[in-house]
Design brief:
The complex is a heterodimer.
Chain A (H helix, E strand, L loop, with lengths): L2 E8 L3 H12 L4 E4 L15 E2 L6 H21 L3 E2 L3 E5 L2 H16 L5 E3 L1 H7 L10 E5 L3 E3 L1 H14 L3 E3 L4 E7 L2 E7 L2 E10 L5 H7 L9 E10 L10 E4 L5 E5 L5 E4 L3 E2 L9 H14 L7 E12 L6 E5 L5 E5 L5 H18 L13 H4 L11
Parallel strand pairs in A: 1-2, 1-12, 2-9, 5-14, 12-20
Antiparallel strand pairs in A: 3-8, 4-8, 5-7, 6-7, 10-11, 11-12, 13-16, 13-17, 13-18, 14-15, 15-16, 19-20
Chain B lengths: L13 E6 L2 E6 L4 H7 L6 E2 L5 E2 L8 E4 L2 E5 L10 E3 L19 E10 L3 H10 L5 E4 L7 H4 L12 H11 L4 E4 L3 E2 L3 E3 L2 E8 L2 E12 L3 E3 L12 E3 H9 L8 E5 L3 H11 L2 E4 L3 E5 L6 E4 L4 E3 L2 E4 L3 E3 L2 H5 L4 E4 L2 E4 L6 E3 L2 E3 L9 H18 L6 H8 L23 E3 L3 E2 H9 L5 H8 L12 H12 L18 E2 H4 L4
Parallel strand pairs in B: 1-7, 8-9, 8-14, 9-10, 14-27, 16-22, 17-18, 17-22
Antiparallel strand pairs in B: 1-2, 3-4, 5-6, 5-7, 11-13, 12-13, 13-14, 15-23, 19-20, 20-21, 24-25, 26-27, 28-29
Classes of the chains: A alpha+beta, B alpha/beta.
Bound molecules: flavin-adenine dinucleotide (FAD).
Chain lengths: 381, 494
């Protein structure tokens, strides 16, 4: 007998898992299918960063809510989430001007970002080379979380509240009859459902195609890589440090002690995930410019994951009306980890109530077709 | 002679070094870890969680040398007046300035052979007449594990060190030997393979049309309480200190693991007192091993423990280079095609493929070399080597039952990076049966050795606890760099 659920989520990254968790919390009957293991897509490959420093109202508001949720669930479930801030290093007047504008938006919605001097930046991260820095944009309430323990915790508690999560279960097709979803075919048989959520991020276009969706939702997979060094003393690099000048680099120290991060080095569209030697050299070059002491550290490994990119670096989130009832939350570029708790709340609102107080309109999946691209969201790496 | 010296050292090289403020006798060129061992000093560094560590089991060996933190005590040679101190893993040099970029060294060859054990040497000797070869070896000697043996090995005519010297003497001008050079991985680069490597902080790029992975095997890690304590030795380190440096691991040692004979013949040769303990439970001591207690409650007063539990192929170079694995005879090994390749252009030979006598590894290297010669349209007879190789059935390595019920799991280190057996055990007990997730929750296989020493035991534990066959476990793939490299060595933009 095929298993049945009211709602079926495809994709067990942080987005799908947080959504399963939120729906289960609201008492909904939900199944999640993941083709490999929880987190195996981009989530376990991410740079851990969580920020509210965006350049538009919608992302700032969404992230403000997300940070509240990160705080709440990390305390409730006991995983690591630290509000150690985001520090953007700025090197010329033009950059400073742009950040001034962003800060004004952020402040308007209660995010306490401010411009600080290079000396203040160095107080926050004493290892920094500030010789070329002229200012920094600093928000102490941004932070980072452990992707492994957080995703695992959301999965565990989702299950405890009745969600059914199946790993190693790949969705092969979606059964639609007369415009209505009937179920999905998987590597482990049929699952019946009336509502499908596409939370597969880099694979979203393949799932859309299975449902026969023709609406243009351009999400393409790009290879982005990350590096981690040997663990060093806790507290050596507390915030996420960003330098657009030096290779679009971002770096921070994980709860476990290693220095993690990446640069803007990008390849794609591609599903290839082999780490490259060029990245190894480039990331080392830029990181040691920003913090010379990193030069002495041993690199333990590099790896690659996907930025699932849209033309404006904003995700596609919402309901697709071509079939009844199909939802998408995908295309998160370099910021899908940080958003997941708020995106889950927003999606759960849309599915269960048909409306939400969070700014879902900004992520409208139809905007591409209508040619209404948003301001490009600030992207790390 | 120093307390643990086995041989008289060259008096003209005698120097003084200072460890934690105290003067010790050393010999110029000796590795620091060896010089201190000869003086009976085992505890050299301290792990993140505060566990005392020596040089000879697993984990990194960061030390403060002449005021510079995070210097590798296993690689740094002793010099007159050197001041050496212990440190904690997490300490590093905060005032580093990046030196001017060193010019890159770049070599273009027909074949890159990674690993200069008998297999790598066999491949080089087979090909050198017709092809240019770069031979990349991380250690300072040729011959790999074979070189460490003090006694004759089946198939070879002479003592190991003689045999290897004889081979080296045969190298012609087509061979570029790169010793003390660690390959960081194999990358595709058009028609070539690119193998970046480092010698110290010098970056070297080798472009080759074909690659032979003769990257060898790694010692098996045995799980018992305080298995990471200073004074516990892996078999290769025990062989190295005795046979290369003429220093004893201890005055009275316990040999544990399923292959004690390999070690006891060597200990007897040197006249070192030993006891074989088949079922170790716990090592104890203040700063280093003072006694070993077995599962039956017997106590052995010893000052060192040697783990002689055999080896398994090092799968990291294989998976990084794009090879697939299968599980046979108690270990993961590369899947090879009919031409002895893990994929087009990349060959594997020696104990990187399977565990067998050194001579069989040599023949397998010859075989890979002959296959490559044929690819380049030279005369060669791989079939002869193939037939010869068939005479050697690879060894099976026994799978231990992990006795999680009868040990204090917190004290058992599965990995040198502060991953206790308890952490992994608890994750499995909590219902997580996927090694991929256990890895990320416990940091197993995510530290300095990239799983080289710890992943197997992790897989074994998962298999024994969940009943999932070893062959069916989703094993994490090694990521570059396959050997730790300092960021400044690779920091460059072209
Ligand atoms: C190097 C790097 C650094 C990053 N740094 C950050 C950062 O600092 N902060 C941040 O917020 N974000 C960061 N990101 C982005 C972040 O990782 C992603 O946006 C986020 O993980 C997306 O989560 P997701 O759940 O939407 O997608 P994923 O985690 O990719 O999950 C999608 C899942 O769908 C599954 N799937 C696909 N097809 C099927 C199918 N047919 N059937 C069943 N399952 C299927 C996949 O296996 C996968 O597990 C980074 C990304 C990379 C690559």
């Amino acid at each position: 007998m095929a298993e049945r659920s009211e709602i079926l989520i495809i994709g067990g990254g942080i987005t799908g898992v947080a959504l399963a968790h939120e729906l289960a919390r609201r008492g909904e009957d939900v199944v999640l299918l993941e083709k490999r293991f929880i987190g195996s897509g981009s989530t376990f490959r991410c740079g851990t960063g969580i920020r509210q420093q965006f350049n538009d109202e919608a992302n700032v508001r969404l992230m403000k809510r997300s940070v509240e949720l990160w705080k709440r669930y990390s305390e409730e479930y006991g995983f690591s989430f630290q509000q150690t801030g985001y520090l953007f290093l700025l090197y010329d007047e033009e950059e400073v001007e742009e950040f001034r504008r962003n800060i004004a938006i952020q402040n308007r919605f209660g995010v306490p970002t401010r411009l600080i001097t290079p000396e203040e930046a160095k107080e926050i991260v004493p290892l920094l080379d500030i010789s070329e820095v002229i200012a920094a944009s600093w928000n102490p309430t941004d932070g980072k979380a452990d992707p492994f323990h957080s995703t695992a915790a959301f999965a565990l508690h989702a299950k405890e509240m009745g969600a059914r999560l199946y790993e190693r279960t790949e969705v092969k097709d979606i059964i639609v009859e007369n415009g209505e979803i009937k179920g999905v075919k998987t590597s482990r048989g049929l699952f019946k459902t009336g509502i499908v959520v596409n939370a597969t991020n880099a694979w979203a276009k393949l799932i859309n195609a299975m449902a026969g969706i023709r609406t243009k939702i351009p999400i393409e997979p790009y290879k982005h890589q990350a590096v981690i060094t040997q663990p060093i003393k806790p507290g050596s690099i507390n915030p996420m440090v960003i330098s657009f000048r030096y290779g679009h680099a971002y770096l921070t120290q994980t709860a476990h002690g290693g220095v993690v991060g990446g640069v803007g080095y990008e390849e794609g569209p591609t599903y290839d995930l082999s780490p490259s030697y060029e990245f190894l050299k480039e990331v080392s070059y830029y990181f040691t410019k920003i913090i010379p002491a990193l030069g002495d550290l041993l690199i333990l490994r590099t790896w690659a994951g996907y930025y699932a990119k849209t033309p404006d670096s904003n995700a596609a989130i919402g309901r697709i009306n071509e079939v009844d009832e199909f939802y998408i939350a995908a295309g998160f570029s370099g910021h899908g980890f940080m958003m997941a708790p708020a995106v889950a709340e927003m999606m759960a609102d849309l599915i269960t109530k048909g409306r939400t107080s969070l700014p879902a309109w900004w992520f409208d999946p139809y905007r591409f077709e209508r040619g209404e691209l948003r301001t490009t969201a600030i992207q790390m790496g | 002679m120093r307390p643990l010296d086995l041989t008289e050292k060259d008096p003209s090289k005698k120097i003084t070094i200072y460890f934690e403020g105290k003067a010790y006798e050393a010999y110029e060129g000796e590795k620091i870890a060896v010089a201190l061992l000869a003086n009976g000093v085992y505890w050299l560094t301290t792990s993140t969680e505060g566990r005392k560590r020596g040089a000879f089991y697993f984990g990194p060996l960061p030390m403060v040398i002449n005021g510079v933190k995070n210097t590798d005590g296993r690689k740094t040679p002793a010099k007159e007046g050197m001041r050496i101190e212990r440190q904690n893993y997490g300490e590093f040099q905060e005032d580093v300035r990046i030196d001017e970029e060193k010019p890159l060294l770049r070599y273009v060859v027909d074949v890159a052979v990674i690993g200069a054990g008998p297999a790598g040497l066999g491949a080089v000797l087979e090909m050198q007449e017709h092809l240019t070869v770069a031979l990349i070896e991380e250690r300072s000697w040729l011959g790999g594990d074979f070189w460490l043996k003090g006694i004759r090995q089946e198939g070879f005519d002479g003592e190991p060190q003689e045999v290897i010297s004889g081979m080296r003497a045969k190298f012609n001008q087509n061979v570029r030997l790169l010793l003390k050079t660690s390959a960081l991985g194999v990358f595709d680069e058009g028609e070539y393979f690119l193998i970046p490597a480092v010698r110290g902080n010098q970056l070297i790029e080798i472009l080759a049309k074909r690659v032979v992975l003769a990257t060898g095997a790694v010692d098996n890690i045995l799980l018992f309480e305080n298995n990471d304590m200073p004074g516990v030795f892996r078999r290769a380190f025990a062989l190295e200190v005795m046979n290369l440096w003429g220093v004893a691991p201890g005055r009275k040692v316990a040999v544990v693991g399923s292959r004690p004979e390999e070690m006891t013949v060597e200990l007897e040769r040197w006249g070192i007192d030993y006891v074989v303990v088949p079922n170790p439970k716990r090592a104890e001591g203040k700063e280093s091993v003072e006694r070993l207690i077995d599962m039956n409650g017997n106590t052995y007063e010893v000052d060192a423990v040697i783990v002689a539990d055999g080896r398994r192929p090092d799968i990291n170079p294989i998976t990084q280079a794009g090879g697939r694995l299968r599980f046979r005879r108690g270990y993961y090994m590369p899947v090879l095609d009919a031409y002895h390749r893990i994929r087009e252009g990349i060959y594997a030979a020696g104990s990187a493929v399977s565990i067998k006598p050194h001579y069989a590894n040599y023949i397998e290297g010859r075989l890979a070399g002959a296959r490559i010669l044929k690819e380049f349209s030279f005369d060669a007879e791989p079939c002869i080597y193939e037939e010869k190789l068939r005479e050697y059935e690879p060894e099976a390595v026994p799978l231990h039952r992990i006795e999680s019920g009868s040990m204090n799991l917190e004290d058992v280190q599965i990995c040198g990076c502060d991953v206790s057996l308890k952490k992994v055990h608890d994750a499995v007990e909590s219902g997580i049966s996927d090694l991929q997730i256990i890895k990320r929750l416990t940091h197993l296989a995510m530290g300095f050795c990239q799983g080289r020493f710890c992943l197997f035991n992790g897989a074994l534990l998962v298999s024994q606890k969940t009943g999932v066959d070893m062959a069916r476990i989703d094993l994490p793939v090694a990521r570059p760099p396959i050997k730790n490299v300092r960021m400044k060595a690779v920091a460059r933009r072209d």
